[in-house]
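Readers of this paper often ask what the protein records in our data store actually look like. Nothing more is needed to write down the fold, since each code stands for a local backbone conformation. Below, we set out a record of this kind in full and without editing:
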Amino acid sequence: MFCRVELWTLALLVALGCEVKEEKAPEARAPLADRSAYPKVVAFGDSLTAGFGIGLDQAYPAVLQELLDEEGFAYEVVNAGVSGDTSAGGVRRLDWVLDGRDVEVLVLALGANDGLRGLPPAEMKKNLAAIIERAKARGIRVLLAGFEAPPDSQDRYLQEFVSVFPELAREHEVLLLPSFLQDVAGVSELIQEDGKHPNVKGARVLAENVFHVLEPFLFRPGVSSAP
């Protein structure tokens, strides 16, 4: 039976602090530019996505929108992050998030709270696989955001937890961001005072991490198709 997660594991996951009640996904403020006709990039995650402590306007999906605009991509980013959400919560609300939207990309960044609560990695894998398959059935490209353990880690639970993400990417042939928190976890200048959530600067790094993986697979108006 899985039981505990070491304090340094919590720092690695940087996830979502103590237990937070699940809530309805917040609605992003209306963008200054009219992107309503653009295909959507849905950022589907927990408080790392929702912008806990910094707000929607400075959360990583808002920065990702800026990066896409600057590079000439015609997409609208939808922030579908819910603080405290788990992989099981994601399964329950997926259709609500996707229905009625022209979604081209789903950035799936869930699982950190599963790890914080010591939930079985096999159950998390089952839930994430269900999200991936349901998204793919709609013709949506999926980018799966994972986590990495320290190279010298001997923690069995952590090893099983982090191995889920590359396994899913291989088995379901989706894009993988191996470490969502790359260059953020453990960097005090990029983390809020709670020691867990990215600050404004950290959120920009998260957005850049996502953008670098997505960029080769996106379309610019007037340019031939992406791979």
